[in-house]
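Posting for a labmate who doesn't have an account.
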Amino acid sequence: MNDRPEDAVVREKGLAALEEELGPVQALRFLAMISRQPFDYQAWRRKEFDGMSLSDVLSRVDAAQQ
């Protein structure tokens, strides 16, 4: 059984989150900006989380949600 949401559902939820946080115009602007720029997820992940434990990462998530 596949518990992962379909890509369309993930896209829809992601767009809704962007629109809620940024508004529709700025959400589209953000999407246009990231689609024009190359992005290396692995390099970003190493830069953001290098040397952090899972507990550290979860603490950052908790802090960001408050």
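Reply:
Got it, the structure tokens are right above this. The mean pLDDT is 87.
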